[in-house]
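Researcher: We're teaching a course module on how sequence relates to structure. For the next exercise, students receive a sequence and then see the predicted structure as tokens, so they can try to spot secondary structure elements on their own. Here is the exercise chain.
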Amino acid sequence: MTDIEQYVAPSTLEQAAEYLRSGEVTILAGGTDLMPQSQGGRLQIRRTLMNIHRIPELKGIAIEDGAIRIGALATITEIMQSELVQKHLPILVEACDHFASDQIRNAATLGGNICNASPAGDTLVPLIALDAEVELASKPNGSLARRRLPLAEFFTGPGKTRRGAAELLAGVRIPLPKANHYSRFFKFGTRPALDISTISIAIAGILNNGALSNVRVAFGAVAPVPMRAPRTEQALEGKRLDAASIEAIAGVARDEVTPIDDIRATAWYRKELIHNITKRMLAHVAQA
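Model: And here is the predicted structure for the students to work with:
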């Protein structure tokens, strides 16, 4: 670990962006990923440690311009307990309910879970299925600038994202779901609420007469990044779900993922899980 030369705690987004502009800054939010990674030698803390907890622009959950904006500092517990999220984004509540332990949920932030960029990140798969966008802030020319990027395009590899070194993740924007929106999340692990997922699946769309339209499917822990599954989406779009179509769609899902062997499961086992759990989830859609 690098010796920290400066600790700063800005109170505005502009101040934080100015520090980032100077370079050599490590961002501290909940610390539930940062601390064990730095102590284990997997991450090197830079010369300046910046605590962002005093920045009000990074907090809160609210409806803005037809979307639900969740601040980067919102904790997993706050998201679970939010009436807005419970009403409009129940799939995100499902995912948060399988996120680590109560103690970790009270400290871990949504922004941290996103920027950690784990292929198995619990909130990432449902957020991708909800067409979430990340909101990034920086001061490239001395004034505060913001840009948005679809979350599905944000990840470039394990632990890697399109966030620039001088950018701060300010929040996440999720379009308000339309009428008859249906969504479900499933996480498989030895102890699903405590362990890193072996696989995770999110399915979302507009449900009418037993068929889904505007389909979104996302998978976790089966590729270098949490991934949207366009071939599975295409196979599912508008299909009446009977035993034959469910089997065919689950086969497409199994063939679309590219998992690896690791300590939690083999690639073969992950593919079989994707096939079998997709079948189970689609059977639930057919009965909804």
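Model: If you want an answer key for the exercise: The first helix runs from residue 13 to 21. The mean pLDDT is 94.
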